[in-house]
Write a structure and sequence with these properties.
Elements (H helix, E strand, L loop, with lengths): L7 H31 L2 H4 L5 H7 L5 H16 L3 H6 L5 H6 L9 H8 L4 H10 L10 E4 L17 E6 L6 E2 L30 E6 L2 E8 L1 H13 L9 H20 L22 E3 L27 H11 L6 E2 L2 E2 L6 E5 L14 E5 H12 L1 H24 L10
Parallel strand pairs: 1-3, 6-9
Antiparallel strand pairs: 1-2, 2-5, 4-5, 7-8, 9-10
Helix pairs in contact: 1-4, 3-4, 12-13
Amino acid sequence: MSIETLSSSAITARLRALLAQGRQVDVEVLVHLAEFDRRRAWAELGYGSLWEYCKRELKLLECATFHRTTAARILQRIPEAADYLRDGRLGMSTLVVLKDVLDESNARALLDRASGKSRDDVKEIVASLREPAPVPAASIRRVPVAAANCAIETKPVVGLSFDAARGAGNPQVRGPEADGVEEASPSPGASLPAAMRAPARRPEIEPVARDQYNVRFVADREFVEMLKKVRALESHAVPDGDLVTLLRRGLEALVRKHEAKKGPKRAKRPAPASPVAAVADAPGVRDSSQTETDGSPRGIEEAAIDAKRRKAVPAEVRRAVWERDEGRCVWETASGPCGSTWKVEGDHIIPEALGGEATVENMRLLCRDHNEQHARDVFGDAWIERCKEEGRARSREGRRRANARGRPRTGPLQ
């Protein structure tokens, strides 16, 4: 039977069966590798290690070799771990994370604790079992630009990374200048078009011990200049210029600002009831009746209601819906509510275009993807795609007019 003729429910059932079969095969491979390694059979074939055998004989890539050899050696010490892999309570990558803390004395408790957890969650568990280590000072350092395989005239660029851990000491600015970062020398490939450059490093948050994390990200020159300015402005409150303290103070101020907007309005003293003053939406929450210029869906009503005709959702309704839904997407999936907190938007259950009211009962929070899915379910894919294209056209026209007026273009720094 062709897969095109299967129903969605049939495909779902087959996917579950295939994944279950795949788990069984993976575990059998690990069990066989464990026994193969226990016998040192790889030496009989002339290989120097199990790693070399997997790379050269089994043609595994380095990442696959690492995970399989490490998991196989864990199974030699803790055979019952195979049961957790077979029924899906643990994945191979999460088992590997436990390699340094798993032993016969804690195996059952630790495997149970890690069951069903993500790799990042298991890293947190491992870190909680380690004693806090000495923390290096927070630092700013210049990041070299990777050379491209071509010769090209380039402009000077500066890349900066920030390394910090909880409780870090004095910051260090590395470079010949006393107050900051030197201008980097031209590097091949630095001015290549964005599409030809290596992808930017994602921010990294890595647990290193109990209540300690290593945070790394790459920042641009404007960020570093702003950071130096803040260090000067806060020099009385933070005399050592500790970067972690400065960033924490800024984040706490941002949290207080947004909590005041999103939560129920709390008066400092009893006062007669009065209309709630208009305020901006809660952080991450966008009223689907508001206008957006990035070309993405602006809520399900965007498909049918002209922007001039739509009504803003009252602030008290937004607050009540936010509090009720706890700032999370409530779209029902096969495994329960979505629960995402990313790009959360206010959504009319019965669209305004179909007579829906902006009431607490008719409003809910949805993430951007599920808000768009609701729109597609109601108005159809063709209509939504047309609206998205119209939004992109409006954005292009807005940028063109701004450039024509000589206004600086907003957006990511070049």
